[in-house]
Design brief:
about 0% strand, about 120 residues, extended, mainly alpha, 6 helices
Length: about 120
């Protein structure tokens, strides 16, 4: 006759509920790392290659498709940066960040005002 199985003996082969949170934490860390690494190939690719379309182009095409307007697909011509007027480039930068030439990438004045 064999000895009765104790609670400890039956729990050896079973996963412990006590350590289940580690599995979830590991998965969360891997997901965050994946989401942080995912954009890097696209940034490198689009630094060299002109993107064929943008999200705005897709949105406008969908709007034209729904409304029945023509032409359906947008026509665009890519212009080299040196062919664009420096005043136009400054105007576009000013529309996004009028203090662009006054800081080195992080505008602490605007961050302070936003807070």
């Amino acid at each position: 006759m064999s000895a009765p199985r104790t609670a400890r003996a039956t729990a050896i082969g079973e996963p412990s509920k006590r350590h289940g949170w580690r599995k979830h934490l590991r998965r969360a860390v891997l997901l965050i790392a994946f989401l942080l690494i995912l954009p890097i190939p696209f940034v490198v690719l689009f630094a060299v290659v002109q993107p064929p379309l943008t999200a705005v182009m897709i949105q406008q095409t969908a709007g034209r498709l729904v409304s029945g307007a023509r032409p359906l697909w947008p026509r665009h011509i890519t212009v080299a940066r040196d062919k664009i007027s420096p005043n136009l480039r400054r105007a576009v930068l000013a529309s996004e960040d009028d203090r662009f030439y006054l800081h080195h990438g992080i505008d602490f004045v605007e961050i302070d005002q936003a807070l």
